[in-house]
Batch of 3 targets.
Target 1
Amino acid sequence: MTGRLKDRVALVIGGARGIGGAIADRFTSAGAKIALADVEEEAGEARASALDGIFVRTDISRPEDAEGAVAATVTYYGRIDILVQNAGIYPWTLIENISPEEWDQVFAVNMRGTFLAARAALPHMKAQRYGRMVFTSSITGPHVTSPGHGHYSATKAGINGFIRAAALEFAGYGITVNGVEPGNILTEGMKAHRSETFIRHMAESIPLGRLGTPEDVANAFLFLASDEAAYITGTTIVVDGGQLLPEGNDFRINPE
Ligand SMILES: NC(=O)c1ccc[n+]([C@@H]2O[C@H](COP(=O)([O-])OP(=O)(O)OC[C@H]3O[C@@H](n4cnc5c(N)ncnc54)[C@H](O)[C@@H]3O)[C@@H](O)[C@H]2O)c1
């Protein structure tokens, strides 16, 4: 196999569909060997077998599952070079209606899951003196937000802080830690949890004129997971079609 990730072993958590599915596809086409971890067994198994990889049923909010996904990867392939923690949930609920249980669930998957994944992969990457960790953040939280995203925004801003802390702690072992901040990406999750009106209005607010595709985001993951990004750590790449740029709503110019 040739490619930018030739023979690298990558564990993609939350890789059954959506952005994570595209990351697994892109990594494989760049030469990586793939382990997929996800709560969705059927879709995960199907994608893993199409990519000639392995599937590990994993609820990343559970420490034993995080350890299990990394252990299965190392047992099967003998190492783990790349860790992607992409699993995330984004229920739409106004702050006044968020129950403490829902708050904890969003934190358990999005933030605790990111910490647990990093903690599980660290000893192996440390021993190899090599590792690439790439986490899915968002523009929502670190830069912008909208109503209904209180818990979600807090987790994604928190992930960026964790990326910086982990990058600093792991740098001495040859491990880089970075993140990708997608804008609005048309995935199964987005279609299920956001209305058509939300999606249409969102497209109108994006200078490049469309929502992103999972492949748009996967390309940034590929770069950060590759050796081309060897000197980059503790940072994030925004993939948003220019959505963060306008000072106000009236940003379109008429070329005619
Ligand atoms: N779609 C967007 O516009 C967008 C924008 C910014 C950030 N993100 C982030 O990108 C990531 C993927 O989003 P998506 O839109 O592809 O979502 P999605 O719902 O389409 O896919 C998410 C995947 O994660 C899995 N998952 C959920 N909970 C899990 C758990 N506890 N353990 C393991 N796997 C679990 C799901 O089964 C699914 O396969 C999330 O972290 C999300 O917050 C998405």
Target 2
Amino acid sequence: MRTCEKWFIGGFFLLLAGVVSGQALPVIDVYKNPYCGCCGNWIKHLQATGFSVRVHETSDTDATRRQLGMPATYASCHTAKMTIAGKSYLFEGHVPAGDIQRLLREKPAALGLAVPGMPAGSPGMEVPKGQEQPYETLLILPDGSARVYKRHAPGQSQ
Ligand SMILES: [Cu+2]
């Protein structure tokens, strides 16, 4: 086999692996205000990681958050929902895709993840270097309490 053929076949399988792993990531339903720019940037961040996103526009994100069951204490600009194997998780705010992937692996007994507020430097909230703030991704437990799931240092949004 000539080298170029090997490269071609190798490339094909890499592409196939990419497609398969992309499809393995579940769909995330995102509820956001139509005028929210940083919500749109967070959606792009999810898509770049391989998640499929369905966007639902709402003029009242507080009401949507309440309906979905995310406690208002952890509020941010958008709420998302993902269902895997009959189990649903909620994501509030600018949660890094890497934390969602970890949740998919660990499947904890939890309501979901939240990054309350809109910390500068979180995915979708990109700011010039040096202006990022540290933030935490919280694991929201079924009783509504929270524990730190991941600490994010300034400059590493993932
Ligand atoms: Cu935001």
Target 3
Amino acid sequence: MVNIDEAEANHLSAHLGQNRAEFDAKYVSKGESGRMVINAIPCHFLVENSCSVYSHRFAGCKEFPAFHVPDFNKRLFTTFMHYDRCPIIFNVIETLKKDISFDYKNFQ
Ligand code: SF4
């Protein structure tokens, strides 16, 4: 799930030529805490393995995997949950595996 804020929703809805009510109805859910998230996995804007709104994508997308945010290990479950659905997550994980010379044979 991609978290978004009001400014990002306003920005992308304007880019898509939609008013906020349309945008929210199509793409946004609110969690129990009131945080807004994109309401589909994979994301609505993933088209043919690419982000169709790349230059307007959300901060969470730009920052992924957000190593500057503490407790990356606590986000691993959701990261791997979407590993085979999102090419950005897949590519980041595969790059990290190369960077640390990960060899799955060491874990059998
Ligand atoms: S980067 Fe991925 S999750 Fe973010 S808006 Fe684009 S397709 Fe959606």
